[in-house]
Amino acid sequence: MTEFDAAGRQIYHQGFLDGSCFLYSLANAYKALTGSKVTREKWDLAIQHVPEPANFLRDVGATGLSYQDAVALIEAMLDGFSEPGERFEIHQLSASAGIGDLCREISPGSVVNFAFSGKTEVHHPRNHVVCAVAASLDPPVLHLACSAAFSSRHLQDGSYEERCHPLLGRYSNDSIALDSPVEIAPNWRWRLTLVSGRTG
Question: What pTM value is reported for the model?
Answer without folding.
Answer: 0.92
